[in-house]
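Fill in residues.
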């Protein structure tokens, strides 16, 4: 697909198009951003543009090469991901990819490889990748996708051009959900919980999400009583696994962002169907207080994503939240 079909990353696309026009694309890229925000699409379009003979800085989308890439059937593109049921990208997989890249391309001017997610390269495979990143065989293009570049070896990071993708905005998620045939009602419910990831928005199950959201709002109400047992119980409940914790934090971010909007006098909120609960959050504390909490929820989310212990992180966050109302 042409770059114009990718939503929300205009500045990145402008940079890529400029390097395509000047023939100065990097050998290795590291695309960092939440899974489902458009990194893979951008990577594939960049490869399409490099392979496409009809255009210098874009994919035409209709030539045989562009069409093969769109349907996932181009013989010169290699995708490297963990095998089913395996945690890591193994050294054997990596060697196989290196062997493929060393062969002459079948039809494209060069070979290309996407490694997704790059944080699943284990130490052996990451070390073995270093030389390939430095001197890609046959001018091959290597694109690594990651949710968090800091989880990669610094020696891998430093050999790639880092491009940071922002999460998709709420408006773009809503638009993309609509294009995917999701009803408007369902879209307004899941979009705020998606953390800027279309993939996550599409995976969220409406009904169980509604139930989980009600539960979180009820627990938040209880936290305001400032009882230590309630705080630790709630932290225990939501720290079962990292994904559950991140979902909770996404919900809290969305609630507090809305509460801050209300506190600042704007009537526009995204969690429209639970407006009374949001109004209650907004009125329980001052606007600066809610802003500080919003910042702390962001911090907690970053920490949990960087492997902080979810239970301890939530204990601390919930303590602050209950103190703020005392
Ligand atoms: Zn084309």
């Amino acid at each position: 697909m042409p770059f114009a079909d990718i939503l929300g990353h205009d500045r990145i696309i402008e940079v890529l198009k400029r390097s395509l026009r000047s023939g100065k694309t990097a050998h290795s890229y590291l695309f960092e951003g939440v899974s489902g925000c458009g990194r893979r699409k951008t990577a594939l379009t960049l490869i399409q543009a490099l392979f496409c003979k009809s255009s210098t800085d874009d994919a035409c989308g209709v030539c045989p090469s562009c069409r093969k890439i769109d349907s996932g059937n181009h013989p010169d593109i290699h995708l490297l991901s963990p095998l089913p049921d395996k945690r890591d990208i193994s050294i054997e997989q990596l060697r196989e990819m290196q062997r493929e890249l060393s062969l002459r391309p079948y039809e494209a001017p060069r070979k290309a490889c996407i490694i997704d997610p790059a944080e699943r390269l284990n130490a052996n495979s990451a070390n073995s990748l270093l030389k390939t990143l430095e001197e890609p065989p046959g001018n091959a293009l290597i694109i690594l996708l990651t949710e968090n570049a800091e989880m990669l070896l610094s020696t891998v990071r430093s050999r790639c051009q880092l491009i940071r993708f922002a999460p998709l905005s709420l408006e773009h998620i809503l638009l993309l959900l609509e294009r995917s045939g999701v009803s408007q009602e369902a879209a307004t419910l899941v979009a705020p919980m998606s953390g800027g990831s279309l993939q996550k928005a599409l995976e969220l199950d409406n009904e169980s999400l509604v139930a989980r959201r009600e539960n979180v709002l009820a627990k938040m109400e209880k936290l305001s009583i400032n009882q230590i047992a309630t705080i630790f119980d709630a932290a225990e409940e939501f720290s079962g696994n990292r994904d559950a914790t991140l979902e909770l934090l996404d919900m809290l971010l969305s609630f507090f962002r809305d509460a801050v909007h209300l506190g600042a006098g704007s009537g526009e909120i995204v969690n429209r169907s639970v407006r009374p609960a949001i109004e209650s959050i907004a009125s329980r504390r001052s606007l600066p207080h809610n802003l500080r909490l919003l910042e702390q929820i962001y911090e907690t989310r970053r920490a949990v994503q960087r492997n902080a212990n979810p239970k301890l992180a939530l204990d601390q966050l919930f303590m602050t939240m209950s103190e703020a109302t005392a």
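Residues 52, 54, 59-60, 63, 65-66 surround zinc ion (CB under 6 Å).
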